[in-house]
Amino acid sequence: MRYRLAFFAGLAVGFVLGARAGRERYEQIKQSARQVAQNPAVRNTAESAAQQSRQFAGKAYHTVSEKVGDHVPEAVAHRMRTLRAHTNGSAEDDWGTSNT
Description:
It is a single chain. The protein has three helices and no strands. The protein is mainly alpha-helical. The mean pLDDT is 78.
């Protein structure tokens, strides 16, 4: 109960202080966030992280599908095989997004 009370007290204090800061401070924070997001170093790092996560997810997908493939219903196994065949030679997934 004490933790809930502390949480709601912090929430109320944050709300009051945020309301006092007003729209001007919000716009400053938004502009700073936009500048950081448009920074080439940040964009390159984010793209690199996204590419590495795609590679890791692909490896994990293949490892799991190989180890679990015999233990799933045939319909699911068939879908996994078709997805594997589809993604090996294609640059797009089922949603039309690029894997680059």
